[in-house]
Amino acid sequence: MISLLLFVLHPLIDAYYASLPFHYRCRMLLLLPFTFISYTWKSLPYRVNRPFVVYHIPTRRPGETVRALIYNHPNTGQRAPVKRLSREERLRERQDELIRAEISNRLSFTPQRAPVERLRPLHVDIHGGGFIGGIPEYDAPFCTQVAKTTGAVVVSLTYRFAPRYPYPAAHDDVEDAILWLVDNAEELFGADPEFLTLSGSSVGGTLALGAALNVMKIEGYDWIKGIVTFYSPVDLRLPPQDKRKPPGFPSIDLSWPLFPLFDAYAGLGRVHNNEDPRLHPTLIPSQDWPADTLFVIPTRDILLYEQLELVERLQKDYEISDRDRKATSHTKQIEKLMFEGQWHGWLDCMSD
Question: How many other C-beta atoms are found inside a 10 Å radius of the C-beta of residue 5?
Fold first, then answer.
């Protein structure tokens, strides 16, 4: 409860105590009532009946953690016990299965085996909020549905916010949490890190892609199987007011007073980070794209064109690669799901 209260009050705390320019401070105070209303609206239904367990995941910063909600946690009483195996035991079990399959094929019979309860898949979700706010409860309906329909252990993360903490603070937090989960999710939550998927709404998708880029380069952690992004910015080299507007977009964007805040995370270091693919996923080379990805894209969004251009570029590159190699084993599946007439964040406004 205290940690959630700190999230609600963070615009006020940052405005008064952080060393920020005046134009950021006044906008943080302007943001406070909207933060209070949205946080209350999204978290109030879960004050009594929680489908999750609140957990604090350690980061690379000594003594610092990120708040997370764990769905299908062993302590919720919503799941059956699972058989927990070490990585070495899982490898031996898979080798045994291959041997049994080979013997079965040669002898033309199927051996009878006692059923073994498997570890659950692991899914990590990152909420949106323009890099300046948000709580994991934003995505609670989505995470609840994923946990219910797939049986996966779902971990919904938060991170540090701009302008007090510009790039790469949020990326570091998400990356640290994913690495910690890969090391600990099996023992603590009965989840299999080798079946890891990610999702993120708005900038949560940006963080998922950026963190995945680094995580997949680390030996022993390259287990991310797929990513889903919902209306996520993939090119932060331009500030919001300079992005190309699609047909049907309002002539006046009512969020314009907050544009400097929305741009604070990337904009404060834009000169130095303009070529960084971790911050700008559109710059990730096709051969380094971390995993199969589905882009969920509404058409009345200033992020429309940058997402479509990225999807088109990746699909074209993989099509050429497949044709040249006559194989698809090393390419990624890139798909888009378009929603005509919808706007940025429309799924967050739908009823549970």
Answer: 10
Closest CA to 67 of 154, 135, 146, 140: 135
Q: Render pLDDT for 215-253 as a digit per residue (tens, 0 to 9).
A: 999 988 989 999 999 999 999 999 999 999 999 998 888
> What is the greatest pairwise CA distance in the chain?
78
**Two tokens, residue 111:** 């051996």
Backbone angles phi, psi at 175, to 5 degrees: -65, -45
Q: Which two tokens stand for residue 115?
A: 């059923």
45 contacts: CB under 8 Å, gap ≥ 6: 140, 352
Question: Distance (Å, rounded) from C-alpha 162 to C-alpha 174?
Answer: 15
Q: Look up residue 301 and give its two tokens.
A: 């969004």
Closest CA to 277 of 343, 217, 202, 341: 217
Q: What's the pLDDT score for residue 231?
A: 98
> pLDDT tier at 30 (50, 70, 90 boundaries)?
confident
d(CA 241, CA 112): 64
Between 268 and 146, the higher pLDDT residue? 146
The full length of the chain comes to: 352
Q: Is 251 helix (H, G, I), strand (E, B) or coil?
A: coil
Rounded CA-CA distance 68/33 in Å is 24
DSSP H helices, the chain, are 2-17, 22-43, 87-107, 140-150, 169-189, 203-215, 259-262, 264-267, 270-273, 304-325
d(CA 203, CA 129): 7
Whole-prediction pTM? 0.85
